[in-house]
Structures are given as C-alpha cells and as structure tokens.
C-alpha cells in the first residue's frame, strides 16, 4: 500500500511533523511505502483564483492542482496531518482541499452527490490539539467537527474507511507527548 501524508504546519520541528514521522514509521513497519507532501515547505498556494474556475465548466485545472491530484491518484491511503485551529483545519490545508478535490474529479454534486468519483481509499486524520480531549468530548464539539470532516469532505474523497485521531493534550508533559507519538505509530501500523 502507498500512503500519502499531507502535512499542514509551518514549522518542520513541530509536534505535528513529529507525529507524521511516527505515523510513517508505523506504516513502513507494516510494509507500506510513504510519500510526504509538506504544504508549507513546498509553497502550495491555497488561494482560489480565476485560474481555478474553468474546471467547473469542464475546462483545464491549474498545473499545481493537477500535480496534487496525481499524488492522490498514486496513493491507497491518504493521511491529513494538521493542528486543530478553532475546531477546524488551518487555512493552508483548507485551501488545498478546496483547490484539489474538485468537481468532476473528486465528486459530482448533481448526478450522484453521495458517491465519490475517486476509488476507495483509507482516509486518516492526525489532529494534534493543545487541549485535552476531555473538553472536546464533554462539550460534544468533537462529534460536531468529526461529522463535518466525515460528511463534508472525507466522503467526497472516496474514503470508505475513515480514521480520525484527535490527539488531545499535545502541549502536555513529555510523557503525554510520547503517548501521542505512540498512538500515531500505531495508527500507521494499523493501516492494513
């Protein structure tokens, strides 16, 4: 299985990057190949611009979008790794999703809105959160955010097998962080 890991964090020494490295190690230990897409390091432009519009009228997609789509087409599992910002994705990753998962490539909202046009894949989200997940579950905010990610995006991505890991307490003690890194490794190893 080939795994594409898309990272959205500006600092290469961030805990988000550490989690993706451990996830990749787990996937490789299970015999999978891994490819990284570090959106900040690669300078991906998340802005929706006039060049993005023609694709909605069966016109061409911009070259940077086609390159990202080719990465996705190569993978059997896609992992999105990002810190939790205001119960959502950072703007860079949201812009990547908006520009890359396009109408008539990923989904068709008119003819068959409940089915992705992409082949089935495993979808993973690694989401470090500074706060402990107790607050996340206590207020049902986790349920709401996960439902939005599930029904508002992952379903359109062709992810029949969805694994969302909100890793709370990422700003905690070294022991807590080691536990979260172990969870990321286990998630990579459990890909199948």
UniProtKB/TrEMBL annotation:
GO MF annotation, one: NAD(P)H dehydrogenase (quinone) activity
Family annotation (SUPFAM superfamilies): Flavoproteins
GO CC annotations, alphabetized: cytosol
Domain of life: Bacteria
Keywords associated with the record: Oxidoreductase
InterPro entries linked: Flavodoxin_fold, Flavoprotein-like_sf, NAD(P)H_dehydrogenase_qn
Cited Pfam families: Flavodoxin_2 (PF02525)
Ranges for domain Flavodoxin-like fold: 1-186
Keyword Ubl conjugation: no
Protein family: Belongs to the NAD(P)H dehydrogenase (quinone) family.
PANTHER family according to UniProt: NAD P H OXIDOREDUCTASE-RELATED, NAD(P)H DEHYDROGENASE [QUINONE] 1 ISOFORM 1
Name assigned to this protein: Flavodoxin-like protein
Species of provenance: Actibacterium atlanticum
